[in-house]
Amino acid sequence: AVLLAIVLGNQLAKPLLVLADGVRQVARGDLTAKPVFASSDELGGLTRSFADMTAQVAEARSQVQRGMGQLEAARTRLQTILDTLTAGVIVFDREGHIDTVNPGATRILQRPLSAWRGRRLSELPDLQEFAHSVEQRFELLATSPEAGERDQWQDSFELKRGDGTTLTLLVRGATLQGERAAAQRAEARLMVFDDITEVVSAQRSAAWAEVARRLAHEIKNPLTPIQLSAERLQHRLGHKLEGADQALLQRSVNTIVAQVQAMQTLVNEFRDYARLPAAQMKPLELGALASEVLALYGQALDNGLLTSHLEPGLPRILGDATQLRQVIHNIVQNALDAVADRPDGQVELITSAARGENGELRAVRLTVIDNGPGFADKVLKRAFEPYVTTKAKGTGLGLAVVKKIADEHGARLRVANIHVGDEPDGPVTGARVSLSFSTFAATPAATAAGPQADTALAATGSATQHQ
User: Fold this and answer.
1) More confident site: 372 or 10
2) What is the arithmetic mean of pLDDT over 438-463?
3) How many angstroms separate the CA atoms of 51 and 29, rounded?
């Protein structure tokens, strides 16, 4: 009886012990294959079922881990794409708070948007009007979409920066309605935007070039006959009139001739703007070219009105010496005109190298700074478009021609006002115009007396009318 009890006890206890040990292992997270009690009774079947269940759980966990890995890889890939996009991307949650932003949005809007996650776009400084317009556009899409609009919209907005410049943004909006959002009758929103300021400016410049070409063609032809006819009237009738009549004829003819000459000057400037010759790229030294232009302003240099700081040893750039001479001349003359009425007027021309964090050369830059009244708001908004000027006798073609030449050279032209303490809302203490060249000659930098000095042409006194 004792032996029989021991045998039966082993047959009953052993599979239970195997099962209990397997349960403890699973509780610790060990999902490896579990032993099976070799018997055909119910206890052996229980151990086999437990082993099968453990294997299935292990396979399910493996699939979940693989899915999590794929999801994390997809998320990383999506974040990489967002980080490398030049366009700005902002995702708003269903309550309108900023949920996701990419570096492109921070770069375009020039605001640390990442620090404003969980808050509304309208809470950011100087973005209330823009945020309100975007919100209205989303609401319009939801309530009464326009023809062709289903789940997205596109529009352009103008955004004023703190430095007075204006950005033109092409904004696209879309709704991201998921199951949870649908259940709560709310929608997450996606906003993608690009800075198209340069594109719009280029389109306006192209339109102005066409207008200038037609204007020059239509107006120039009758100007010469008008002037000749007025001079002929004076020649034929001048000796036949006396006293007040003769003086009236003289004044009238002089007025006609002066206005015709002014019109001819304007037409020639429009013609030059529309038909700017292609740049002849050659290696040249920017500092030497600036020195040649500065030589035209001897009096301003002598009385200290104009100073220069030319960094030696700058790499040579590729450019057209004649066109760049005209650019420097226009920029310097504009600065001198801005300080002409100031007893303490000061204009400074600087050439320097722009380098990155690792010391690598990024650009060779020419900067002209003055302590004048700065640019007017309307000039900052559309500084490089024709006929934008604050001068009483200006045609507004100076900076427009400078911009066209800069584009031909692949250079970046920037204008800005200088504020006290670099605060955007502070008082204006002057203006800054900079021209950055990123295309360099293959040969090492030459000295001012090197081969480039031989390629420079003599500066001419007839330059395009200044801004």
Assistant:
1) 372
2) 45
3) 14
- List 435's β-bridge partners, or say none: 366, 413
Cβ atoms < 10 Å from Cβ of 102: 22
Phi/psi at 364 (nearest 5 deg)?
-105, 125
This prediction's pTM: 0.46
| Site of tokens 């600065």 | 335
Q: Read off the pLDDT of residues 145-160 as tens digits, 9 standing for 90 and up.
A: 665 556 778 888 888 7
Mean local confidence (pLDDT), 263-276: 67
Q: With 50 as the cut, is the pLDDT of residue 459 above it?
A: no
Closest CA to 453 of 295, 276, 279, 277: 295
Per-residue pLDDT tens digits for 221-235: 777 788 888 888 888
User: What's residue 369's pLDDT?
Assistant: 92
Across 131-149, b (16+ Cβ under 10 Å) vs e yields eeebbebbeebeeeeeeee
Q: What does the block give as tokens for 293? A: 């232009």
Say how far apart CA 322 and CA 278 lie, in whole Å: 11
Beta bridge partners of 365: 352, 436
Contacts of residues 383-390 at CB distance under 8 Å and 24 or more positions apart, as own/partner, are 383/415, 384/201, 384/205, 384/413, 385/201, 385/204, 385/205, 385/208, 386/205, 386/208, 386/212, 386/273, 387/208, 389/467
Burial of 399 (0-12, 13-18, 19+ CB in 10 A): buried
Q: Please report which confidence band the pLDDT of residue 185 belongs to, taking 50, 70 and 90 as the band edges.
A: very low
HEC-encoded secondary structure of 279-308: CCCEEECHHHHHHHHHHHHHHHHHCCCEEE
Residue 238, pLDDT score:
77
Tokens 């959002």, residue?
181
Q: Report the distance separating Cα 167 and Cα 164, nearest Å.
A: 10
Work out the angle between the directed axes of helices 197-237 and 243-274 (0-180°, nearest 10).
Answer: 150
Structure-token match 């100007």, residue found = 223
CB-based burial label for 239 (10 Å; 0-12, 13-18, 19+): exposed
328-370: pLDDT as tens digits: 888 898 889 888 888 888 999 999 988 877 777 888 899 999 9
* Residue 161 confidence class, pLDDT cut points 50, 70, 90: low
